[in-house]
């Protein structure tokens, strides 16, 4: 069953998959990233994200396809402490205030021996330091603008507000695509199931009809034997 064409959803995530269960993969710096990957049965895949002190890490995940639509999720701090543990959940949203170091998060499908899972997750990083530096750069041009009706600080605030709302819109659209993919998987699975059991019922009806015709025919056969 194919939700939205998977090549369009993978977003280069094949390079992020880890072959050994204990290995980890690093993301390129980004304020908002989303990925989709396939987690084989009996496997655990881990990734890590470098973070700064007093920043914010928001992570949302969804199981798009696979029996049960569930997976185990772990989020660990740079010190190895477990911050979040979700057991056999289909989706989740978690936000943590971070410190300097690499945060590791893992998706665990070792409880499943047959079914692979298609997992979508999105990372949103806030207060990573770039915005603060940009604001410091803007302050160099603020001097002498008191006579203007709108100061450069107001322009910067308006731009940041528009930027934040656009980012939120992109995030919502990405989540809606993920929900659509999962719902389409469920619908196609139900469609295949209905077709299968319809064919089974049709086969049973044909067999029963043949048996009934044979039995009715045998009732009207002349079974008397001619005497010699």
From TrEMBL:
Gene Ontology cellular-component annotations: endoplasmic reticulum membrane; endoplasmic reticulum-Golgi intermediate compartment membrane; Golgi apparatus
Keywords: Endoplasmic reticulum, Membrane, Signal, Transmembrane, Transmembrane helix
The keyword Flavoprotein is annotated on this UniProt entry: no
Any matching Pfam family: EMP24_GP25L
Bilayer-spanning residue ranges: 196-216
Identification of the protein by name: TMED5 protein
Organism the protein comes from: Glareola pratincola
Record localization: Endoplasmic reticulum membrane; Endoplasmic reticulum-Golgi intermediate compartment membrane; Golgi apparatus, cis-Golgi network membrane; Membrane
Similarity annotation: Belongs to the EMP24/GP25L family.
């Amino acid at each position: 069953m194919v939700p939205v064409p998977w090549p369009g959803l993978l977003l280069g995530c094949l390079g992020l998959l880890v072959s050994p269960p204990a290995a980890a993969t690093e993301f390129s710096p980004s304020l908002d990233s989303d990925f989709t990957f396939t987690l084989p049965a009996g496997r655990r895949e881990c990734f890590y994200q470098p973070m700064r002190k007093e920043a914010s890490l928001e992570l949302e995940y969804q199981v798009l396809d696979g029996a049960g639509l569930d997976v185990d999720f772990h989020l660990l701090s740079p010190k190895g402490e477990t911050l979040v543990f979700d057991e056999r959940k289909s989706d989740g949203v978690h936000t943590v205030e971070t410190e300097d170091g690499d945060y590791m998060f893992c998706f665990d499908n070792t409880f499943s021996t047959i079914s692979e899972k298609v997992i979508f997750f999105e990372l949103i990083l806030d207060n990573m330091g770039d915005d603060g530096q940009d604001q410091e750069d803007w302050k160099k041009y603020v001097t002498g603008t008191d006579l203007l009706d709108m100061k450069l600080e107001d322009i910067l605030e308006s731009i940041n507000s528009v930027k934040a709302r656009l980012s939120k819109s992109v995030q919502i659209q990405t989540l809606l695509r993920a929900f659509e993919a999962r719902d389409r998987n469920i619908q196609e699975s139900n469609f295949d199931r209905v077709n299968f059991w319809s064919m089974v019922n049709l086969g049973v009806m044909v067999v029963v009809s043949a048996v009934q015709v044979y039995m009715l025919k045998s009732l009207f056969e002349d079974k008397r034997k001619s005497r010699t």
